[in-house]
Inverse folding.
Protein backbone atom coordinates (compact mmCIF):
# COMPACT_ATOMS: atom_id res chain seq x y z
CA UNK A 1 0.00 0.00 0.00
CA UNK A 2 2.87 2.37 0.80
CA UNK A 3 4.28 2.11 -2.72
CA UNK A 4 0.90 2.99 -4.21
CA UNK A 5 0.61 6.04 -1.97
CA UNK A 6 4.13 7.15 -2.95
CA UNK A 7 3.18 7.01 -6.63
CA UNK A 8 0.03 9.01 -5.85
CA UNK A 9 2.14 11.71 -4.19
CA UNK A 10 4.57 11.77 -7.13
CA UNK A 11 1.73 12.20 -9.62
CA UNK A 12 0.25 14.87 -7.34
CA UNK A 13 3.60 16.69 -7.30
CA UNK A 14 3.82 16.40 -11.10
CA UNK A 15 0.32 17.81 -11.52
CA UNK A 16 1.01 20.55 -8.96
CA UNK A 17 4.05 21.68 -10.97
CA UNK A 18 2.20 21.36 -14.31
CA UNK A 19 -0.86 23.17 -12.94
CA UNK A 20 1.40 25.91 -11.56
CA UNK A 21 2.88 26.26 -15.05
CA UNK A 22 -0.45 26.12 -16.92
CA UNK A 23 -1.84 29.38 -15.56
CA UNK A 24 -3.53 32.33 -17.28
CA UNK A 25 -0.08 33.62 -18.33
CA UNK A 26 0.62 30.29 -20.03
CA UNK A 27 -2.61 30.60 -22.06
CA UNK A 28 -1.92 34.23 -22.96
CA UNK A 29 1.76 33.66 -23.90
CA UNK A 30 0.91 30.67 -26.12
CA UNK A 31 -1.77 32.59 -28.03
CA UNK A 32 0.38 35.73 -28.47
CA UNK A 33 3.49 33.91 -29.69
CA UNK A 34 1.49 31.64 -32.02
CA UNK A 35 0.07 34.74 -33.69
CA UNK A 36 3.54 36.34 -33.91
CA UNK A 37 5.55 33.31 -35.10
CA UNK A 38 2.92 31.10 -36.74
CA UNK A 39 3.93 27.47 -37.31
CA UNK A 40 7.56 28.34 -36.39
CA UNK A 41 6.44 28.59 -32.75
CA UNK A 42 6.60 24.76 -32.86
CA UNK A 43 10.42 25.06 -32.88
CA UNK A 44 10.33 27.34 -29.82
CA UNK A 45 8.09 24.81 -28.02
CA UNK A 46 10.38 21.88 -28.91
CA UNK A 47 13.47 23.80 -27.74
CA UNK A 48 11.73 24.85 -24.55
CA UNK A 49 10.67 21.25 -23.74
CA UNK A 50 14.34 20.15 -23.87
CA UNK A 51 15.48 23.10 -21.72
CA UNK A 52 12.58 22.54 -19.28
CA UNK A 53 13.31 18.82 -18.85
CA UNK A 54 17.04 19.36 -18.19
CA UNK A 55 16.41 22.17 -15.68
CA UNK A 56 13.67 20.28 -13.85
CA UNK A 57 15.57 16.97 -13.63
CA UNK A 58 18.60 18.70 -12.13
CA UNK A 59 16.62 20.74 -9.60
CA UNK A 60 14.25 17.96 -8.45
CA UNK A 61 17.07 15.40 -8.08
CA UNK A 62 19.33 17.72 -6.07
CA UNK A 63 16.51 18.80 -3.74
CA UNK A 64 15.46 15.15 -3.24
CA UNK A 65 19.02 13.99 -2.45
CA UNK A 66 19.85 16.97 -0.21
CA UNK A 67 16.46 16.52 1.51
CA UNK A 68 16.28 20.27 2.00
CA UNK A 69 14.26 23.09 0.38
CA UNK A 70 16.03 25.10 -2.33
CA UNK A 71 16.64 28.16 -0.14
CA UNK A 72 18.51 26.10 2.50
CA UNK A 73 20.63 24.45 -0.21
CA UNK A 74 21.41 27.89 -1.71
CA UNK A 75 22.47 29.25 1.70
CA UNK A 76 24.90 26.34 2.08
CA UNK A 77 26.39 27.03 -1.37
CA UNK A 78 26.85 30.79 -0.79
CA UNK A 79 25.89 32.35 2.56
CA UNK A 80 22.93 34.64 1.96
CA UNK A 81 22.17 33.24 -1.52
CA UNK A 82 19.12 31.40 -0.17
CA UNK A 83 17.63 34.65 1.10
CA UNK A 84 18.29 36.35 -2.25
CA UNK A 85 16.77 33.42 -4.20
CA UNK A 86 13.75 33.38 -1.86
CA UNK A 87 13.26 37.11 -2.37
CA UNK A 88 13.27 36.67 -6.19
CA UNK A 89 10.98 33.64 -6.12
CA UNK A 90 8.61 35.20 -3.57
CA UNK A 91 8.24 38.43 -5.58
CA UNK A 92 7.85 36.48 -8.84
CA UNK A 93 5.27 34.24 -7.20
CA UNK A 94 3.32 37.23 -5.88
CA UNK A 95 3.31 38.89 -9.31
CA UNK A 96 2.22 35.63 -10.96
CA UNK A 97 -0.46 35.14 -8.32
CA UNK A 98 -1.99 38.52 -9.10
CA UNK A 99 -2.33 37.33 -12.70
CA UNK A 100 -3.62 33.93 -11.56
CA UNK A 101 -6.33 35.54 -9.42
CA UNK A 102 -7.21 37.79 -12.36
CA UNK A 103 -7.44 34.80 -14.71
CA UNK A 104 -9.71 32.91 -12.33
CA UNK A 105 -11.89 36.01 -11.99
CA UNK A 106 -12.05 36.40 -15.77
CA UNK A 107 -13.11 32.75 -16.07
CA UNK A 108 -16.09 33.23 -13.74
CA UNK A 109 -16.92 36.48 -15.57
CA UNK A 110 -17.11 34.54 -18.88
CA UNK A 111 -19.06 31.64 -17.35
CA UNK A 112 -21.59 33.51 -15.19
CA UNK A 113 -21.48 37.17 -16.21
CA UNK A 114 -20.36 38.42 -12.79
CA UNK A 115 -17.66 41.11 -12.66
CA UNK A 116 -14.02 40.02 -12.93
CA UNK A 117 -13.39 41.49 -9.46
CA UNK A 118 -16.23 39.46 -7.93
CA UNK A 119 -14.96 36.34 -9.72
CA UNK A 120 -11.46 36.97 -8.35
CA UNK A 121 -12.76 37.23 -4.77
CA UNK A 122 -14.85 34.03 -5.10
CA UNK A 123 -11.87 32.15 -6.58
CA UNK A 124 -9.56 33.39 -3.81
CA UNK A 125 -12.02 32.13 -1.18
CA UNK A 126 -12.17 28.69 -2.90
CA UNK A 127 -8.35 28.48 -3.02
CA UNK A 128 -8.16 29.43 0.68
CA UNK A 129 -10.67 26.64 1.41
CA UNK A 130 -8.16 24.07 0.14
CA UNK A 131 -5.57 25.27 2.68
CA UNK A 132 -8.04 25.50 5.58
CA UNK A 133 -8.99 21.85 5.03
CA UNK A 134 -7.13 19.59 7.50
CA UNK A 135 -5.82 17.21 4.84
CA UNK A 136 -4.51 20.13 2.76
CA UNK A 137 -1.70 18.13 1.14
CA UNK A 138 -4.02 15.38 -0.13
CA UNK A 139 -6.65 17.95 -1.15
CA UNK A 140 -4.04 19.89 -3.10
CA UNK A 141 -2.85 16.74 -4.92
CA UNK A 142 -6.42 15.72 -5.83
CA UNK A 143 -7.34 19.26 -6.91
CA UNK A 144 -4.19 19.61 -9.06
CA UNK A 145 -4.90 16.29 -10.82
CA UNK A 146 -8.56 17.13 -11.49
CA UNK A 147 -7.87 20.63 -12.81
CA UNK A 148 -4.91 19.41 -14.88
CA UNK A 149 -6.96 16.72 -16.62
CA UNK A 150 -9.86 19.14 -17.18
CA UNK A 151 -7.59 21.71 -18.88
CA UNK A 152 -5.98 19.09 -21.14
CA UNK A 153 -9.35 17.58 -22.24
CA UNK A 154 -10.84 21.00 -23.07
CA UNK A 155 -7.71 22.13 -24.95
CA UNK A 156 -7.76 18.85 -26.91
CA UNK A 157 -11.36 19.54 -27.95
CA UNK A 158 -10.56 23.07 -29.21
CA UNK A 159 -7.39 21.86 -30.95
CA UNK A 160 -9.44 19.23 -32.79
CA UNK A 161 -12.17 21.56 -34.06
CA UNK A 162 -9.80 24.39 -35.10
CA UNK A 163 -8.49 22.21 -37.98
CA UNK A 164 -4.81 23.23 -37.71
CA UNK A 165 -2.13 22.71 -40.43
CA UNK A 166 -0.35 19.90 -38.58
CA UNK A 167 2.07 19.03 -41.43
CA UNK A 168 3.40 22.60 -41.56
CA UNK A 169 3.76 22.70 -37.76
CA UNK A 170 5.77 19.44 -37.87
CA UNK A 171 8.13 20.83 -40.54
CA UNK A 172 8.59 24.17 -38.75
CA UNK A 173 9.39 22.39 -35.46
CA UNK A 174 12.82 21.55 -36.96
CA UNK A 175 13.03 24.15 -39.75
CA UNK A 176 11.62 27.45 -38.46
CA UNK A 177 11.26 30.56 -40.59
CA UNK A 178 10.88 32.86 -37.57
CA UNK A 179 12.58 32.93 -34.17
CA UNK A 180 12.27 35.04 -31.02
CA UNK A 181 14.60 35.22 -28.01
CA UNK A 182 11.72 36.69 -26.00
CA UNK A 183 9.43 33.77 -26.88
CA UNK A 184 11.94 31.14 -25.66
CA UNK A 185 12.77 33.07 -22.48
CA UNK A 186 9.09 33.67 -21.71
CA UNK A 187 7.97 30.11 -22.49
CA UNK A 188 10.78 28.46 -20.47
CA UNK A 189 10.28 31.02 -17.69
CA UNK A 190 6.55 30.36 -17.72
CA UNK A 191 7.08 26.59 -17.46
CA UNK A 192 10.05 26.06 -15.11
CA UNK A 193 11.10 29.61 -14.14
CA UNK A 194 10.74 31.33 -10.79
CA UNK A 195 8.71 29.32 -8.27
CA UNK A 196 7.23 26.85 -10.77
CA UNK A 197 9.87 24.11 -10.99
CA UNK A 198 10.21 24.13 -7.19
CA UNK A 199 6.46 23.60 -6.60
CA UNK A 200 6.60 19.84 -7.26
CA UNK A 201 10.04 19.38 -5.64
CA UNK A 202 8.97 21.09 -2.41
CA UNK A 203 5.75 19.04 -2.42
CA UNK A 204 7.90 15.87 -2.50
CA UNK A 205 9.88 17.22 0.47
CA UNK A 206 6.70 17.79 2.48
CA UNK A 207 5.49 14.27 1.60
CA UNK A 208 8.95 12.84 2.57
CA UNK A 209 9.58 11.34 -0.89
CA UNK A 210 13.30 12.07 -0.82
CA UNK A 211 16.70 10.36 -0.75
CA UNK A 212 18.85 8.56 -3.32
CA UNK A 213 16.61 5.47 -3.14
CA UNK A 214 13.68 7.52 -4.46
CA UNK A 215 15.54 9.06 -7.44
CA UNK A 216 13.98 6.79 -10.13
CA UNK A 217 10.54 7.87 -8.92
CA UNK A 218 11.65 11.52 -8.67
CA UNK A 219 12.83 11.32 -12.31
CA UNK A 220 9.42 9.99 -13.37
CA UNK A 221 7.65 12.73 -11.43
CA UNK A 222 9.83 15.49 -12.91
CA UNK A 223 9.47 14.25 -16.50
CA UNK A 224 5.73 13.60 -16.05
CA UNK A 225 5.29 17.22 -14.93
CA UNK A 226 7.14 18.56 -17.98
CA UNK A 227 5.20 16.14 -20.20
CA UNK A 228 1.85 17.37 -18.86
CA UNK A 229 2.76 21.05 -19.21
CA UNK A 230 4.22 20.46 -22.70
CA UNK A 231 1.14 18.52 -23.85
CA UNK A 232 -1.06 21.44 -22.82
CA UNK A 233 1.28 23.90 -24.56
CA UNK A 234 1.18 21.86 -27.78
CA UNK A 235 -2.62 21.55 -27.71
CA UNK A 236 -3.06 25.29 -27.16
CA UNK A 237 -0.52 26.05 -29.90
CA UNK A 238 -2.29 23.73 -32.36
CA UNK A 239 -5.66 25.29 -31.50
CA UNK A 240 -4.29 28.84 -31.91
CA UNK A 241 -2.48 27.90 -35.14
CA UNK A 242 -5.71 26.54 -36.61
CA UNK A 243 -7.37 29.89 -35.87
CA UNK A 244 -4.60 32.28 -37.03
CA UNK A 245 -3.81 30.25 -40.18
CA UNK A 246 -7.27 31.23 -41.49
CA UNK A 247 -6.18 34.88 -41.36
CA UNK A 248 -8.23 35.64 -38.24
CA UNK A 249 -6.83 38.23 -35.83
CA UNK A 250 -6.76 37.65 -32.08
CA UNK A 251 -8.17 40.29 -29.75
CA UNK A 252 -5.11 41.92 -28.07
CA UNK A 253 -7.20 42.57 -24.96
CA UNK A 254 -7.67 38.81 -24.48
CA UNK A 255 -5.81 36.76 -27.12
CA UNK A 256 -6.40 33.37 -25.48
CA UNK A 257 -10.17 33.92 -25.35
CA UNK A 258 -10.11 34.79 -29.07
CA UNK A 259 -8.63 31.37 -29.91
CA UNK A 260 -11.51 29.54 -28.24
CA UNK A 261 -14.20 31.93 -29.50
CA UNK A 262 -13.01 31.94 -33.13
CA UNK A 263 -12.67 28.14 -33.08
CA UNK A 264 -16.10 27.36 -31.66
CA UNK A 265 -18.21 30.50 -31.30
CA UNK A 266 -20.03 31.26 -28.04
CA UNK A 267 -19.66 27.66 -26.86
CA UNK A 268 -15.87 27.94 -27.33
CA UNK A 269 -15.92 31.20 -25.39
CA UNK A 270 -17.63 29.43 -22.46
CA UNK A 271 -15.10 26.58 -22.71
CA UNK A 272 -12.35 29.22 -22.47
CA UNK A 273 -14.02 30.56 -19.31
CA UNK A 274 -13.82 27.11 -17.73
CA UNK A 275 -10.21 26.56 -18.89
CA UNK A 276 -8.88 29.91 -17.65
CA UNK A 277 -10.75 29.52 -14.35
CA UNK A 278 -9.23 26.05 -13.86
CA UNK A 279 -5.81 27.43 -14.92
CA UNK A 280 -6.12 30.44 -12.63
CA UNK A 281 -7.31 28.74 -9.45
CA UNK A 282 -4.91 25.77 -9.68
CA UNK A 283 -2.02 28.18 -10.26
CA UNK A 284 -3.14 30.26 -7.25
CA UNK A 285 -2.83 27.11 -5.12
CA UNK A 286 0.57 26.15 -6.60
CA UNK A 287 2.01 29.67 -6.46
CA UNK A 288 0.91 30.37 -2.89
CA UNK A 289 2.11 26.98 -1.61
CA UNK A 290 5.54 27.24 -3.25
CA UNK A 291 6.20 30.94 -2.60
CA UNK A 292 5.62 30.43 1.14
CA UNK A 293 7.67 27.19 1.11
CA UNK A 294 10.64 29.41 0.21
CA UNK A 295 10.48 31.37 3.45
CA UNK A 296 9.08 28.88 5.99
CA UNK A 297 12.49 27.44 6.96
CA UNK A 298 13.84 30.87 7.91
CA UNK A 299 11.99 31.22 11.21
CA UNK A 300 10.01 28.82 13.48
CA UNK A 301 7.06 31.23 13.53
CA UNK A 302 6.75 31.11 9.72
CA UNK A 303 6.66 27.30 9.91
CA UNK A 304 4.16 27.38 12.78
CA UNK A 305 1.78 29.76 10.99
CA UNK A 306 2.49 28.41 7.48
CA UNK A 307 -1.16 27.89 6.57
CA UNK A 308 -2.23 31.34 7.82
CA UNK A 309 0.62 33.01 5.87
CA UNK A 310 -0.44 31.18 2.67
CA UNK A 311 -3.99 32.49 3.19
CA UNK A 312 -2.70 36.08 3.68
CA UNK A 313 -0.56 35.68 0.52
CA UNK A 314 -3.69 34.76 -1.49
CA UNK A 315 -5.70 37.62 0.05
CA UNK A 316 -2.96 40.18 -0.69
CA UNK A 317 -2.73 38.95 -4.31
CA UNK A 318 -6.50 39.29 -4.67
CA UNK A 319 -6.52 42.76 -3.05
CA UNK A 320 -3.74 44.04 -5.36
CA UNK A 321 -5.56 42.74 -8.44
CA UNK A 322 -8.91 44.29 -7.44
CA UNK A 323 -7.10 47.66 -7.11
CA UNK A 324 -4.88 47.42 -10.23
CA UNK A 325 -6.61 45.13 -12.79
CA UNK A 326 -5.45 44.76 -16.44
CA UNK A 327 -3.20 41.68 -16.16
CA UNK A 328 -2.42 40.79 -19.82
CA UNK A 329 0.87 42.75 -20.06
CA UNK A 330 1.87 41.64 -16.55
CA UNK A 331 1.32 37.98 -17.50
CA UNK A 332 3.70 38.28 -20.47
CA UNK A 333 6.32 40.24 -18.51
CA UNK A 334 6.35 37.91 -15.49
CA UNK A 335 7.10 34.88 -17.68
CA UNK A 336 10.21 36.66 -18.98
CA UNK A 337 11.22 37.76 -15.45
CA UNK A 338 10.90 34.16 -14.22
CA UNK A 339 13.05 33.11 -17.17
CA UNK A 340 15.78 35.44 -15.89
CA UNK A 341 15.51 33.91 -12.38
CA UNK A 342 15.98 30.35 -13.73
CA UNK A 343 19.73 30.51 -14.56
CA UNK A 344 20.44 31.81 -11.03
CA UNK A 345 18.39 29.06 -9.37
CA UNK A 346 19.67 26.28 -11.63
CA UNK A 347 23.28 27.49 -11.42
CA UNK A 348 23.20 27.36 -7.61
CA UNK A 349 21.68 23.84 -7.67
CA UNK A 350 24.38 22.60 -10.07
CA UNK A 351 27.11 23.86 -7.71
CA UNK A 352 25.29 22.20 -4.77
CA UNK A 353 25.44 18.85 -6.62
CA UNK A 354 29.22 18.85 -6.05
CA UNK A 355 29.26 19.84 -2.37
CA UNK A 356 29.50 16.70 -0.22
CA UNK A 357 28.23 18.58 2.86
CA UNK A 358 24.95 19.04 0.93
CA UNK A 359 24.55 15.81 -1.07
CA UNK A 360 26.84 13.46 0.92
CA UNK A 361 27.98 10.50 -1.23
CA UNK A 362 25.61 11.16 -4.16
CA UNK A 363 27.23 11.51 -7.60
CA UNK A 364 25.29 13.63 -10.10
CA UNK A 365 25.51 12.15 -13.66
CA UNK A 366 28.04 14.20 -15.64
CA UNK A 367 25.78 14.45 -18.71
CA UNK A 368 23.01 15.97 -16.57
CA UNK A 369 25.41 18.55 -15.08
CA UNK A 370 26.77 19.49 -18.51
CA UNK A 371 23.26 19.73 -19.96
CA UNK A 372 22.21 21.88 -16.96
CA UNK A 373 25.22 24.18 -17.46
CA UNK A 374 24.18 24.46 -21.12
CA UNK A 375 20.67 25.53 -20.06
CA UNK A 376 22.14 28.18 -17.72
CA UNK A 377 24.31 29.53 -20.56
CA UNK A 378 21.42 29.51 -23.08
CA UNK A 379 19.04 31.26 -20.66
CA UNK A 380 21.63 33.97 -19.91
CA UNK A 381 22.18 34.42 -23.67
CA UNK A 382 18.42 34.53 -24.33
CA UNK A 383 17.97 37.01 -21.47
CA UNK A 384 20.68 39.24 -22.93
CA UNK A 385 19.07 38.98 -26.40
CA UNK A 386 15.63 39.81 -24.96
CA UNK A 387 16.94 42.88 -23.12
CA UNK A 388 18.61 44.09 -26.36
CA UNK A 389 15.33 43.53 -28.28
CA UNK A 390 13.45 45.56 -25.68
CA UNK A 391 16.00 48.40 -25.82
CA UNK A 392 15.80 48.60 -29.61
CA UNK A 393 12.01 48.28 -29.87
Amino acid sequence: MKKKYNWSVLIGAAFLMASSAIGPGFLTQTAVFTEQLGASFAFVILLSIILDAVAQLNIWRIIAVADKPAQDIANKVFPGMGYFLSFLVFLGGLAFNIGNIAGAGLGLNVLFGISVGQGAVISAVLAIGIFIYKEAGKAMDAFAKTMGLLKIMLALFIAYISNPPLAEAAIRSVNPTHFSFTAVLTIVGGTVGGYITFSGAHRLLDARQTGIENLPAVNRGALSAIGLASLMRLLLFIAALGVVSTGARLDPANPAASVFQLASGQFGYKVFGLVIWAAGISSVVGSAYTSISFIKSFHPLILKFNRAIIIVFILVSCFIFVIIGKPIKILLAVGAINGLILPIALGVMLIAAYRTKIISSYKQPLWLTLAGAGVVAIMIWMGYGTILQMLHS
